[in-house]
Write the structure tokens for this entry.
Amino acid sequence: MAAAAEAAMESLPPGVYFNPSSEECVTDYLLPWARGERLPETGQYIHEQSVYAQGPDALRRARAPGTTRAFEPKWYFLSRRNRRGGRAVATGGSWAVEQKQRVLLEAGGDDGDVPCGGTRKSYGFFVGKKKKKTPWLMEEFTAGDSGGGEEEEDSEEVPVLCRVYVSPRATTDEKRAIFGEDGVAVDANKKKKPERVVIPADHFDALKNLLTARVSTGASCCP
């Protein structure tokens, strides 16, 4: 998990995380994408990829995740879902509803919270004939007005944004199976491992340049 978080943080300043709210997922990313508009710069963490083409573990391997302050990776996918189709994954497994659809609200000033035009429904990922539950979860966002007009309303496909992540309740063994040793906070002896700090590569370049400048001028590198 740490390696995935590092990949996502490489182009973000220290202390900055890509973790949009549910409402922002709809208003800032799903709606603009459905209308053919250009996404914000942080759109590099929003991937155009169907969540039904591959299982969640395969989807996340080649794509940078967004992260929370706790370095919990979350993957964001823009896709189109068949209005009448199920949620089976082509390579095996399926997404099943775990929380019913909820209308998303945003602050409306003196009028209180108002609908932002989007909805959210939560799913869990299941595999095998006996539908074994995995630690993978997904939130599927839809927009009431995608900007496509009558043509969009008549379409068999619905624009969606899906946020895929591992359950916060996942066991240490489940996290280790997905992310390897970097994905768990304890070692094989169940002792807490030292926390890893992500240091941007340009910090090392700056230090190298500073030391090189001091050597070339004959200055001491220490006061």
Observations:
- The first strand starts at residue 46 and ends at 48.
- DSSP finds six helices and seven strands in the chain.
- The CA atoms of residues 212 and 218 lie 10 Å apart.
